[in-house]
């Protein structure tokens, strides 16, 4: 997952050291659930949903695999799981003007303001 996260060309981590191995483990084992998309036995994307705040913590697809449906599939799995866990609404945020911003709009997510650091907030109702 870390390899995919560090390979993206947008929404690049300015401080990769802030996302630790333990954070990945927490999201896999305690705070939520994660899914991977594989092609030829290689992980090409992943999504992580956080049950404590009903959010999409991460959705990333390797740049060479974008536009082939992996992101849509991963997002659907994460949202379906959060809704089965009782989430009335799912939230996420992303950098404005990016492919991710356009992706969430195209998937029907509703804009819901901005974060303190300027990211676009999105929500999806059940």
From TrEMBL:
Keywords: Acyltransferase, Transferase
Database matches in InterPro entries: Acyl_CoA_acyltransferase, Bact_Acetyltransf, GNAT_dom
GO molecular function terms attached to this record: acyltransferase activity, transferring groups other than amino-acyl groups
Keyword Glycoprotein among record annotations: no
Signal peptide: none
tRNA-binding in keyword set: no
Pfam families membership: Acetyltransf_1 (PF00583)
Protein name: GNAT family N-acetyltransferase
UniProt organism field: Leeia aquatica
């Amino acid at each position: 997952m870390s390899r995919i996260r560090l390979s993206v060309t947008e929404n690049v981590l300015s401080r990769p050291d802030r996302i630790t191995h333990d954070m990945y483990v927490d999201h896999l084992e305690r705070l939520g659930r994660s899914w991977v998309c594989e092609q030829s036995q290689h992980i090409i994307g992943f999504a992580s949903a956080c049950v404590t705040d009903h959010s999409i913590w991460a959705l990333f697809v390797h740049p060479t695999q974008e536009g082939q449906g992996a992101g849509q599939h991963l997002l659907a799995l994460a949202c379906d799981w959060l809704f089965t866990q009782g989430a009335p609404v799912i939230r996420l945020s992303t950098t404005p003007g990016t492919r991710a911003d356009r992706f969430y709009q195209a998937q029907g997510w509703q804009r819901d303001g901005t974060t303190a650091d300027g990211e676009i907030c999105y929500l999806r109702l059940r």
